[in-house]
## 1
Amino acid sequence: MLKREKRRYLALAVVGEQLPSEEAVLDAVQASIHRLFGEYGASKANVRLIRKRPEKGQIVLCCSHKALEQVRAAIASTTVIDSKAEAVHVLGVSGTLKALSKKT
Amino acid sequence: MRRFADLNLRAPIEDMNKTENMFRKASELGYGLVAIPLPSEVTKEQISQLKRLCSKEELDFAARVTFAPRNSDELLQSLRRYRRRFEVIAVRCDTKDVARQAAKDRRVDLLQFSVTSLRKRFFDEAEAELASQALASLEIELAPLLQLTSISRVRLLSRLRREVAMATRFKVPVTVVSGATERLLMRGAHDYAALTTLFDMRSSSALGALSDNPWGIVERNRKKLSVDYVAPGIRVLGRQGDA
Protein backbone atom coordinates (compact mmCIF):
# COMPACT_ATOMS: atom_id res chain seq x y z
CA MET A 1 0.00 0.00 0.00
CA LEU A 2 1.20 3.48 -0.87
CA LYS A 3 2.28 5.45 2.19
CA ARG A 4 0.32 8.62 2.90
CA GLU A 5 2.33 11.75 2.10
CA LYS A 6 3.20 13.83 5.15
CA ARG A 7 2.25 17.49 4.93
CA ARG A 8 3.33 20.71 6.49
CA TYR A 9 0.93 23.55 7.11
CA LEU A 10 2.28 27.09 6.79
CA ALA A 11 0.60 30.22 8.16
CA LEU A 12 1.47 33.22 5.98
CA ALA A 13 1.06 36.95 6.42
CA VAL A 14 1.24 39.35 3.49
CA VAL A 15 2.74 42.79 3.99
CA GLY A 16 2.09 45.49 1.44
CA GLU A 17 0.04 48.49 0.48
CA GLN A 18 -3.14 46.55 -0.30
CA LEU A 19 -3.83 43.01 0.87
CA PRO A 20 -4.28 40.72 -2.15
CA SER A 21 -6.74 37.83 -2.38
CA GLU A 22 -5.60 34.42 -1.15
CA GLU A 23 -5.78 33.03 -4.71
CA ALA A 24 -3.39 35.75 -5.86
CA VAL A 25 -0.99 34.83 -3.04
CA LEU A 26 -1.16 31.16 -3.97
CA ASP A 27 -0.54 32.02 -7.64
CA ALA A 28 2.46 34.16 -6.73
CA VAL A 29 3.94 31.42 -4.52
CA GLN A 30 3.34 28.79 -7.23
CA ALA A 31 4.98 31.05 -9.82
CA SER A 32 7.95 31.55 -7.51
CA ILE A 33 8.32 27.78 -6.97
CA HIS A 34 8.10 27.29 -10.72
CA ARG A 35 10.76 29.94 -11.34
CA LEU A 36 13.17 28.51 -8.78
CA PHE A 37 12.63 24.76 -9.07
CA GLY A 38 10.81 24.21 -12.35
CA GLU A 39 7.82 22.03 -13.09
CA TYR A 40 9.39 18.97 -11.45
CA GLY A 41 10.01 20.85 -8.21
CA ALA A 42 6.54 22.39 -8.27
CA SER A 43 4.94 18.98 -8.70
CA LYS A 44 6.90 17.59 -5.74
CA ALA A 45 6.07 20.59 -3.55
CA ASN A 46 2.32 20.04 -4.06
CA VAL A 47 1.32 23.42 -2.62
CA ARG A 48 -2.37 23.96 -1.90
CA LEU A 49 -4.50 26.62 -0.30
CA ILE A 50 -6.09 25.34 2.89
CA ARG A 51 -7.93 28.23 4.41
CA LYS A 52 -7.90 31.93 5.00
CA ARG A 53 -8.05 33.57 8.36
CA PRO A 54 -9.18 37.10 7.57
CA GLU A 55 -9.61 37.90 11.26
CA LYS A 56 -5.87 37.31 11.76
CA GLY A 57 -4.85 38.52 8.29
CA GLN A 58 -3.36 35.11 7.58
CA ILE A 59 -3.48 32.51 4.84
CA VAL A 60 -2.79 28.82 5.44
CA LEU A 61 -1.08 26.74 2.75
CA CYS A 62 0.06 23.17 2.85
CA CYS A 63 2.92 21.44 1.07
CA SER A 64 4.77 18.16 1.09
CA HIS A 65 7.00 17.91 4.17
CA LYS A 66 9.95 16.92 1.98
CA ALA A 67 9.70 20.17 0.02
CA LEU A 68 9.27 22.48 3.02
CA GLU A 69 12.62 24.26 2.64
CA GLN A 70 12.06 24.82 -1.09
CA VAL A 71 8.57 26.17 -0.46
CA ARG A 72 9.88 28.50 2.26
CA ALA A 73 12.59 29.72 -0.10
CA ALA A 74 9.99 30.34 -2.80
CA ILE A 75 7.73 32.18 -0.35
CA ALA A 76 10.65 34.34 0.83
CA SER A 77 11.57 35.21 -2.75
CA THR A 78 8.04 36.35 -3.60
CA THR A 79 8.20 40.11 -4.05
CA VAL A 80 5.30 40.84 -6.39
CA ILE A 81 1.65 39.77 -6.03
CA ASP A 82 -0.97 40.97 -8.52
CA SER A 83 1.61 43.36 -10.04
CA LYS A 84 2.10 45.08 -6.68
CA ALA A 85 5.19 45.00 -4.46
CA GLU A 86 4.44 42.81 -1.46
CA ALA A 87 6.30 40.60 0.99
CA VAL A 88 5.10 37.28 2.34
CA HIS A 89 6.25 36.13 5.77
CA VAL A 90 5.94 32.65 7.21
CA LEU A 91 4.47 33.02 10.69
CA GLY A 92 4.55 29.37 11.64
CA VAL A 93 4.92 25.85 10.33
CA SER A 94 3.31 22.75 11.73
CA GLY A 95 2.34 19.20 10.90
CA THR A 96 -1.29 19.67 11.91
CA LEU A 97 -3.74 22.54 11.57
CA LYS A 98 -4.56 22.31 15.27
CA ALA A 99 -0.94 22.84 16.29
CA LEU A 100 -0.58 25.61 13.74
CA SER A 101 -3.52 27.53 15.15
CA LYS A 102 -2.00 27.23 18.63
CA LYS A 103 1.32 28.57 17.33
CA THR A 104 0.05 31.57 15.39
CA MET B 1 16.73 29.79 21.72
CA ARG B 2 18.80 31.41 18.98
CA ARG B 3 19.35 35.17 18.93
CA PHE B 4 19.30 36.42 15.36
CA ALA B 5 21.20 39.38 14.01
CA ASP B 6 21.18 41.39 10.80
CA LEU B 7 24.49 43.16 10.34
CA ASN B 8 23.58 44.97 7.14
CA LEU B 9 20.21 46.63 7.30
CA ARG B 10 20.50 49.45 4.77
CA ALA B 11 18.17 51.87 6.51
CA PRO B 12 18.59 55.52 5.43
CA ILE B 13 19.83 57.48 8.45
CA GLU B 14 18.69 60.76 6.86
CA ASP B 15 15.08 59.51 7.05
CA MET B 16 14.55 58.57 10.69
CA ASN B 17 10.89 57.60 10.16
CA LYS B 18 11.80 55.00 7.58
CA THR B 19 14.68 53.80 9.76
CA GLU B 20 12.36 53.47 12.76
CA ASN B 21 9.87 51.47 10.66
CA MET B 22 12.63 49.14 9.53
CA PHE B 23 13.81 48.65 13.12
CA ARG B 24 10.21 47.87 14.15
CA LYS B 25 9.93 45.32 11.36
CA ALA B 26 13.27 43.74 12.34
CA SER B 27 12.02 43.39 15.89
CA GLU B 28 8.73 41.85 14.69
CA LEU B 29 10.67 39.38 12.56
CA GLY B 30 12.53 38.19 15.64
CA TYR B 31 15.93 39.85 15.34
CA GLY B 32 17.77 40.85 18.49
CA LEU B 33 20.58 42.87 16.93
CA VAL B 34 20.83 45.09 13.87
CA ALA B 35 23.65 47.07 12.34
CA ILE B 36 23.27 49.67 9.64
CA PRO B 37 26.16 50.83 7.48
CA LEU B 38 27.02 54.34 8.60
CA PRO B 39 29.18 56.95 6.90
CA SER B 40 32.65 57.03 8.46
CA GLU B 41 32.16 60.64 9.60
CA VAL B 42 28.95 59.86 11.52
CA THR B 43 28.66 61.74 14.81
CA LYS B 44 28.30 60.14 18.25
CA GLU B 45 24.93 61.90 18.61
CA GLN B 46 23.61 60.20 15.47
CA ILE B 47 24.78 56.82 16.76
CA SER B 48 23.15 57.37 20.14
CA GLN B 49 19.92 58.47 18.41
CA LEU B 50 19.92 55.20 16.44
CA LYS B 51 20.62 53.26 19.64
CA ARG B 52 17.67 54.97 21.29
CA LEU B 53 15.37 54.07 18.38
CA CYS B 54 16.55 50.48 18.59
CA SER B 55 16.12 50.17 22.33
CA LYS B 56 12.52 51.41 21.90
CA GLU B 57 11.97 48.31 19.73
CA GLU B 58 13.94 46.10 22.16
CA LEU B 59 16.77 45.72 19.67
CA ASP B 60 20.49 45.91 20.17
CA PHE B 61 22.31 48.25 17.78
CA ALA B 62 25.85 47.91 16.46
CA ALA B 63 27.62 50.72 14.61
CA ARG B 64 28.96 49.45 11.31
CA VAL B 65 31.06 51.06 8.63
CA THR B 66 31.71 49.74 5.13
CA PHE B 67 34.94 50.87 3.51
CA ALA B 68 35.26 50.79 -0.26
CA PRO B 69 38.95 51.57 -0.73
CA ARG B 70 40.59 51.82 -4.15
CA ASN B 71 43.81 50.15 -2.99
CA SER B 72 45.32 48.44 0.04
CA ASP B 73 47.07 51.62 1.27
CA GLU B 74 43.74 53.41 1.42
CA LEU B 75 42.28 50.45 3.32
CA LEU B 76 45.09 50.47 5.89
CA GLN B 77 44.68 54.19 6.36
CA SER B 78 40.92 53.86 6.94
CA LEU B 79 41.42 50.96 9.38
CA ARG B 80 43.96 52.94 11.41
CA ARG B 81 41.64 55.91 11.54
CA TYR B 82 38.25 54.33 12.21
CA ARG B 83 38.72 50.87 13.75
CA ARG B 84 38.10 52.06 17.28
CA ARG B 85 35.00 54.06 16.38
CA PHE B 86 32.87 51.22 15.00
CA GLU B 87 31.78 47.83 16.30
CA VAL B 88 31.68 46.20 12.87
CA ILE B 89 34.08 46.89 10.00
CA ALA B 90 33.19 45.62 6.54
CA VAL B 91 35.34 46.02 3.47
CA ARG B 92 33.91 46.19 0.00
CA CYS B 93 36.51 44.32 -2.06
CA ASP B 94 36.36 45.68 -5.60
CA THR B 95 40.00 44.93 -6.45
CA LYS B 96 42.08 41.83 -5.78
CA ASP B 97 44.69 43.90 -3.94
CA VAL B 98 42.06 45.18 -1.47
CA ALA B 99 40.49 41.72 -1.13
CA ARG B 100 43.79 40.11 -0.16
CA GLN B 101 44.72 42.84 2.30
CA ALA B 102 41.26 42.75 3.89
CA ALA B 103 41.32 38.97 4.22
CA LYS B 104 44.59 38.92 6.13
CA ASP B 105 43.99 41.97 8.33
CA ARG B 106 42.66 41.02 11.77
CA ARG B 107 40.87 44.37 12.10
CA VAL B 108 38.45 43.47 9.30
CA ASP B 109 35.24 41.67 10.29
CA LEU B 110 33.36 41.23 7.03
CA LEU B 111 34.43 40.76 3.43
CA GLN B 112 31.85 42.12 1.02
CA PHE B 113 31.88 41.50 -2.72
CA SER B 114 29.92 42.92 -5.62
CA VAL B 115 26.63 41.20 -6.46
CA THR B 116 26.20 42.78 -9.86
CA SER B 117 29.69 42.42 -11.27
CA LEU B 118 30.65 38.80 -10.62
CA ARG B 119 34.13 39.33 -12.01
CA LYS B 120 34.79 41.46 -8.97
CA ARG B 121 34.07 38.59 -6.56
CA PHE B 122 37.57 37.64 -5.52
CA PHE B 123 36.65 34.96 -2.97
CA ASP B 124 38.83 32.20 -4.35
CA GLU B 125 41.05 29.61 -2.64
CA ALA B 126 43.84 32.07 -1.86
CA GLU B 127 41.39 34.54 -0.38
CA ALA B 128 39.71 31.83 1.69
CA GLU B 129 43.04 30.62 3.01
CA LEU B 130 44.05 34.13 4.08
CA ALA B 131 40.66 34.74 5.68
CA SER B 132 40.81 31.45 7.57
CA GLN B 133 44.04 32.59 9.28
CA ALA B 134 42.55 35.96 10.27
CA LEU B 135 39.14 36.89 11.68
CA ALA B 136 37.31 38.00 8.57
CA SER B 137 33.96 36.51 7.71
CA LEU B 138 32.40 36.21 4.25
CA GLU B 139 29.32 38.42 4.02
CA ILE B 140 26.42 37.17 1.91
CA GLU B 141 23.65 39.65 1.15
CA LEU B 142 20.26 38.16 0.39
CA ALA B 143 18.29 41.18 -0.84
CA PRO B 144 19.87 40.92 -4.33
CA LEU B 145 18.50 37.38 -4.57
CA LEU B 146 15.02 38.84 -4.18
CA GLN B 147 15.63 41.69 -6.61
CA LEU B 148 17.57 40.02 -9.41
CA THR B 149 15.73 38.05 -12.05
CA SER B 150 16.40 35.23 -14.51
CA ILE B 151 19.99 34.80 -15.66
CA SER B 152 21.60 37.31 -13.28
CA ARG B 153 20.05 35.47 -10.31
CA VAL B 154 21.15 32.13 -11.74
CA ARG B 155 24.72 33.40 -12.08
CA LEU B 156 24.76 34.85 -8.59
CA LEU B 157 23.41 31.60 -7.10
CA SER B 158 26.05 29.62 -8.92
CA ARG B 159 28.83 31.88 -7.65
CA LEU B 160 27.48 31.85 -4.09
CA ARG B 161 27.35 28.05 -4.16
CA ARG B 162 31.03 27.94 -5.08
CA GLU B 163 32.01 30.51 -2.47
CA VAL B 164 30.07 28.84 0.34
CA ALA B 165 31.68 25.50 -0.50
CA MET B 166 35.09 27.18 -0.45
CA ALA B 167 34.38 28.92 2.84
CA THR B 168 33.27 25.62 4.39
CA ARG B 169 36.40 23.86 3.12
CA PHE B 170 38.72 26.50 4.57
CA LYS B 171 36.61 27.01 7.71
CA VAL B 172 35.95 30.67 6.96
CA PRO B 173 32.87 31.85 8.87
CA VAL B 174 29.97 33.04 6.74
CA THR B 175 27.65 35.83 7.85
CA VAL B 176 24.29 36.11 6.14
CA VAL B 177 22.81 39.62 6.09
CA SER B 178 19.68 41.10 4.57
CA GLY B 179 21.07 44.13 2.72
CA ALA B 180 17.46 45.32 2.70
CA THR B 181 16.88 48.93 1.68
CA GLU B 182 13.18 48.87 2.51
CA ARG B 183 10.67 47.00 4.67
CA LEU B 184 9.33 44.89 1.82
CA LEU B 185 12.74 43.33 1.29
CA MET B 186 13.08 42.24 4.92
CA ARG B 187 12.48 38.59 5.82
CA GLY B 188 12.62 36.52 8.99
CA ALA B 189 15.78 34.59 9.86
CA HIS B 190 14.19 31.21 9.09
CA ASP B 191 13.06 32.49 5.69
CA TYR B 192 16.62 33.63 4.99
CA ALA B 193 17.89 30.23 6.10
CA ALA B 194 15.49 28.65 3.59
CA LEU B 195 16.80 30.99 0.89
CA THR B 196 20.37 29.89 1.56
CA THR B 197 19.40 26.33 0.59
CA LEU B 198 19.27 27.72 -2.98
CA PHE B 199 23.06 27.78 -2.90
CA ASP B 200 23.40 24.54 -0.98
CA MET B 201 24.15 25.96 2.44
CA ARG B 202 23.19 23.53 5.16
CA SER B 203 20.32 24.65 7.34
CA SER B 204 22.36 24.49 10.58
CA SER B 205 25.22 26.52 9.03
CA ALA B 206 22.71 29.04 7.69
CA LEU B 207 21.16 29.54 11.13
CA GLY B 208 24.66 29.93 12.58
CA ALA B 209 25.45 32.50 9.87
CA LEU B 210 22.39 34.47 10.99
CA SER B 211 22.97 34.18 14.72
CA ASP B 212 26.21 32.85 16.23
CA ASN B 213 28.59 34.36 13.66
CA PRO B 214 27.25 37.94 13.67
CA TRP B 215 26.78 37.98 17.46
CA GLY B 216 30.31 36.60 17.80
CA ILE B 217 31.73 39.46 15.73
CA VAL B 218 29.89 42.14 17.71
CA GLU B 219 30.68 40.65 21.13
CA ARG B 220 34.37 40.19 20.26
CA ASN B 221 34.65 43.79 19.10
CA ARG B 222 32.73 45.17 22.07
CA LYS B 223 35.21 43.45 24.36
CA LYS B 224 38.09 44.92 22.37
CA LEU B 225 36.58 48.41 22.41
CA SER B 226 35.90 48.33 26.16
CA VAL B 227 38.21 50.39 28.36
CA ASP B 228 39.16 47.24 30.27
CA TYR B 229 40.68 45.54 27.24
CA VAL B 230 44.47 45.43 27.20
CA ALA B 231 45.51 42.71 24.75
CA PRO B 232 44.11 39.35 23.61
CA GLY B 233 43.53 37.37 26.82
CA ILE B 234 44.36 40.29 29.11
CA ARG B 235 41.82 42.68 30.59
CA VAL B 236 41.57 44.92 33.62
CA LEU B 237 39.46 43.34 36.37
CA GLY B 238 39.57 46.26 38.80
CA ARG B 239 41.23 49.61 39.30
CA GLN B 240 42.80 51.28 42.32
CA GLY B 241 40.05 53.05 44.23
CA ASP B 242 37.36 50.61 43.10
CA ALA B 243 35.48 48.96 45.93
## 2
Amino acid sequence: MSNAASNPELQRILMQEEEKRMVNQVVSALTSQCWDKCITSTPGNKFSSGESACLTNCAHRFLDVTVLIMKRFQSMN
Amino acid sequence: MDSFSSPASSIGSSDPRQISPEQFQNLVQSQFAQAYAQEFLETIRDKCFKSCISKPGSSLSGSESSCVSRCVDRYIEATGIISKALMQRPH
Protein backbone atom coordinates (compact mmCIF):
# COMPACT_ATOMS: atom_id res chain seq x y z
CA MET A 1 0.00 0.00 0.00
CA SER A 2 2.85 2.35 -0.85
CA ASN A 3 0.54 4.64 -2.80
CA ALA A 4 -1.71 5.26 0.23
CA ALA A 5 0.86 7.64 1.65
CA SER A 6 1.15 9.70 -1.53
CA ASN A 7 -2.47 9.67 -2.68
CA PRO A 8 -4.36 12.45 -0.85
CA GLU A 9 -7.72 10.80 -1.54
CA LEU A 10 -6.63 7.55 0.12
CA GLN A 11 -5.02 9.47 2.94
CA ARG A 12 -8.28 11.28 3.60
CA ILE A 13 -10.20 7.97 3.65
CA LEU A 14 -7.68 6.46 6.05
CA MET A 15 -7.88 9.43 8.41
CA GLN A 16 -11.66 9.36 8.32
CA GLU A 17 -11.77 5.63 9.14
CA GLU A 18 -9.10 6.06 11.80
CA GLU A 19 -11.24 8.71 13.47
CA LYS A 20 -14.26 6.38 13.53
CA ARG A 21 -12.06 3.67 15.00
CA MET A 22 -10.89 6.00 17.76
CA VAL A 23 -14.47 6.93 18.64
CA ASN A 24 -15.35 3.22 18.84
CA GLN A 25 -12.34 2.62 21.06
CA VAL A 26 -13.41 5.30 23.52
CA VAL A 27 -16.92 3.83 23.61
CA SER A 28 -15.52 0.30 24.21
CA ALA A 29 -13.12 1.34 26.93
CA LEU A 30 -15.73 3.43 28.69
CA THR A 31 -18.41 0.73 28.44
CA SER A 32 -16.00 -1.68 30.13
CA GLN A 33 -15.28 0.74 32.98
CA CYS A 34 -18.91 1.77 33.47
CA TRP A 35 -20.08 -1.85 33.35
CA ASP A 36 -17.76 -2.64 36.25
CA LYS A 37 -18.99 0.37 38.22
CA CYS A 38 -22.72 0.06 37.50
CA ILE A 39 -23.57 -3.62 36.97
CA THR A 40 -22.86 -5.19 40.31
CA SER A 41 -25.49 -7.96 40.35
CA THR A 42 -25.93 -10.78 37.82
CA PRO A 43 -27.34 -9.42 34.54
CA GLY A 44 -31.14 -9.62 34.29
CA ASN A 45 -33.58 -9.62 31.37
CA LYS A 46 -33.45 -5.86 31.33
CA PHE A 47 -31.50 -3.15 33.08
CA SER A 48 -33.04 -1.69 36.23
CA SER A 49 -33.68 2.05 35.99
CA GLY A 50 -30.83 2.49 38.47
CA GLU A 51 -28.43 0.56 36.26
CA SER A 52 -29.25 2.43 33.05
CA ALA A 53 -29.13 5.79 34.86
CA CYS A 54 -25.76 4.81 36.31
CA LEU A 55 -24.41 3.98 32.83
CA THR A 56 -25.59 7.33 31.43
CA ASN A 57 -24.20 9.23 34.42
CA CYS A 58 -20.95 7.33 34.12
CA ALA A 59 -20.47 8.48 30.51
CA HIS A 60 -21.41 12.08 31.37
CA ARG A 61 -19.06 12.24 34.35
CA PHE A 62 -16.31 10.85 32.14
CA LEU A 63 -16.83 13.83 29.82
CA ASP A 64 -16.76 16.17 32.85
CA VAL A 65 -13.47 14.68 34.02
CA THR A 66 -12.04 14.98 30.51
CA VAL A 67 -12.90 18.70 30.40
CA LEU A 68 -11.67 19.25 33.95
CA ILE A 69 -8.29 17.68 33.24
CA MET A 70 -7.93 19.63 30.00
CA LYS A 71 -8.54 22.87 31.91
CA ARG A 72 -6.12 21.82 34.64
CA PHE A 73 -3.41 21.24 32.05
CA GLN A 74 -4.12 24.53 30.29
CA SER A 75 -3.71 26.44 33.59
CA MET A 76 -0.23 24.91 34.05
CA ASN A 77 1.42 26.97 31.30
CA MET B 1 -13.50 -13.94 8.10
CA ASP B 2 -15.46 -13.58 4.89
CA SER B 3 -15.85 -9.83 5.22
CA PHE B 4 -12.10 -9.61 5.64
CA SER B 5 -11.00 -11.86 2.80
CA SER B 6 -13.34 -10.67 0.05
CA PRO B 7 -12.10 -7.06 -0.39
CA ALA B 8 -8.49 -8.14 0.09
CA SER B 9 -8.69 -10.79 -2.61
CA SER B 10 -10.45 -8.46 -5.02
CA ILE B 11 -7.56 -6.02 -4.59
CA GLY B 12 -4.97 -8.77 -4.84
CA SER B 13 -6.23 -9.67 -8.28
CA SER B 14 -5.58 -6.18 -9.65
CA ASP B 15 -2.53 -3.95 -9.73
CA PRO B 16 -2.10 -2.55 -6.19
CA ARG B 17 -1.25 0.84 -7.71
CA GLN B 18 -4.67 0.91 -9.35
CA ILE B 19 -6.62 0.54 -6.11
CA SER B 20 -9.79 2.60 -6.25
CA PRO B 21 -10.79 4.79 -3.29
CA GLU B 22 -13.87 2.57 -2.82
CA GLN B 23 -11.75 -0.58 -2.68
CA PHE B 24 -9.36 1.09 -0.28
CA GLN B 25 -12.19 2.23 1.99
CA ASN B 26 -13.72 -1.27 1.97
CA LEU B 27 -10.37 -2.78 2.87
CA VAL B 28 -9.74 -0.38 5.75
CA GLN B 29 -13.30 -0.71 7.02
CA SER B 30 -13.26 -4.50 6.99
CA GLN B 31 -9.90 -4.66 8.73
CA PHE B 32 -11.02 -2.25 11.44
CA ALA B 33 -14.36 -4.06 11.78
CA GLN B 34 -12.64 -7.39 12.22
CA ALA B 35 -10.29 -6.05 14.87
CA TYR B 36 -13.21 -4.40 16.64
CA ALA B 37 -15.32 -7.58 16.57
CA GLN B 38 -12.44 -9.60 17.98
CA GLU B 39 -11.89 -7.17 20.84
CA PHE B 40 -15.62 -6.84 21.53
CA LEU B 41 -15.98 -10.62 21.74
CA GLU B 42 -13.07 -10.96 24.15
CA THR B 43 -14.34 -8.16 26.38
CA ILE B 44 -17.86 -9.61 26.54
CA ARG B 45 -16.48 -13.05 27.27
CA ASP B 46 -14.39 -11.74 30.16
CA LYS B 47 -17.21 -9.62 31.63
CA CYS B 48 -19.81 -12.36 31.37
CA PHE B 49 -17.49 -15.04 32.66
CA LYS B 50 -16.87 -12.86 35.69
CA SER B 51 -20.57 -12.01 36.16
CA CYS B 52 -22.06 -15.45 35.58
CA ILE B 53 -19.53 -18.10 36.61
CA SER B 54 -18.86 -17.47 40.27
CA LYS B 55 -18.00 -21.03 41.24
CA PRO B 56 -17.07 -23.21 38.24
CA GLY B 57 -18.68 -26.66 38.41
CA SER B 58 -18.03 -29.86 36.45
CA SER B 59 -20.18 -28.52 33.60
CA LEU B 60 -21.90 -25.29 32.62
CA SER B 61 -25.30 -25.24 34.34
CA GLY B 62 -28.52 -24.12 32.70
CA SER B 63 -28.72 -21.06 34.89
CA GLU B 64 -25.13 -20.16 34.05
CA SER B 65 -25.75 -20.36 30.31
CA SER B 66 -28.93 -18.31 30.54
CA CYS B 67 -27.00 -15.78 32.61
CA VAL B 68 -24.39 -15.61 29.84
CA SER B 69 -27.07 -14.98 27.19
CA ARG B 70 -28.62 -12.21 29.26
CA CYS B 71 -25.19 -10.79 29.99
CA VAL B 72 -24.29 -10.62 26.28
CA ASP B 73 -27.58 -8.82 25.52
CA ARG B 74 -27.05 -6.38 28.41
CA TYR B 75 -23.45 -5.68 27.42
CA ILE B 76 -24.49 -4.81 23.87
CA GLU B 77 -27.27 -2.63 25.32
CA ALA B 78 -24.76 -0.96 27.68
CA THR B 79 -22.51 -0.16 24.71
CA GLY B 80 -25.47 1.58 23.06
CA ILE B 81 -26.29 3.54 26.23
CA ILE B 82 -22.69 4.72 26.63
CA SER B 83 -22.41 5.62 22.95
CA LYS B 84 -25.65 7.64 23.11
CA ALA B 85 -24.66 9.35 26.37
CA LEU B 86 -21.31 10.44 24.93
CA MET B 87 -23.06 12.17 22.04
CA GLN B 88 -25.34 14.14 24.40
CA ARG B 89 -24.35 17.11 26.51
CA PRO B 90 -23.66 16.09 30.09
CA HIS B 91 -26.16 17.44 32.64
